[in-house]
Design a protein that fits this description.
Distance between the termini: 47 Å
Largest sheet: none
CATH superfamily of the largest domain: Tetracycline Repressor, domain 2
Number of domains: 2
Radius of gyration: 19 Å
CATH architecture of the largest domain: Orthogonal Bundle
CATH class of the largest domain: Mainly Alpha
CATH topology of the largest domain: Tetracycline Repressor, domain 2
Number of strands: 0
Shape: elongated
């Protein structure tokens, strides 16, 4: 049985109390999705955290998936890294994603990965890859297959994050970050500047 989404309430039609309710639901969703992931955060739990009836979660956002996407920052602040020089992009990307064991980034990646079986989440990730990576980077590359190469860069980063954050691979987890930056960054660089 397929779940359908309700049509979310239009922001412009909300009164101040409705906007406060929506903000409370969004804050509760952000907190619980970060702590428990998509599957672990229920609509009832989000409603309880926000102090509202569970029906209001769906009324305001249309679906748990829509609330999830509204509260999760899928951009991960990657813009400045992508906009920098292409000559060392591979190492800069790996450094960015490994920097300081960023727990907020880890939580977001894990939550998004765990929800990637949902069509709405997959659609958002395809949109994100196109807008955050392919559109700004592909025109700056030289040679053939530029869009495919950028998509493969994203796939390589996702693979690294999967092994580190989801599988918690002991070999990679124990490796010195500078070694990962050098080895994996240089592998990614082969796609950027072949």
């Amino acid at each position: 049985m397929t779940k359908t989404s309700a049509e979310p309430t239009d922001d412009s039609r909300l009164r101040p109390a409705g906007r406060a309710t929506r903000a409370a639901i969004e804050a509760a969703g952000k907190k619980l999705f970060a702590e428990r992931g998509f599957e672990g955060a229920s609509v009832r739990g989000i409603a309880a955290e926000a102090g509202v009836d569970p029906a209001l979660v769906i009324r305001h956002f249309g679906s748990k998936e829509a609330l999830f996407l509204r509260t999760m920052d899928t951009s991960l602040g990657i813009g400045p890294v992508i906009e920098g020089p292409v000559e060392d992009l591979g190492r800069r990307l790996v450094t960015y994603f490994l920097e300081g064991g960023n727990t907020a980034m880890r939580r977001r990646f894990v939550a998004i990965a765990q929800a990637s079986h949902l069509q709405q989440v997959r659609d958002e990730m395809v949109r994100h890859t196109a807008e955050a990576y392919i559109a700004p980077l592909a025109p700056r590359l030289e040679g053939e297959d530029r869009e495919i190469r950028v998509a493969l860069v994203v796939a390589q980063i996702a693979g690294l994050l999967n092994l580190l954050f989801l599988q918690e691979d002991p070999v990679l987890s124990a490796a010195p970050p500078d070694t990962l930056v050098r080895l994996y960054g240089d592998a990614i660089q082969q796609l950027v500047t072949p």
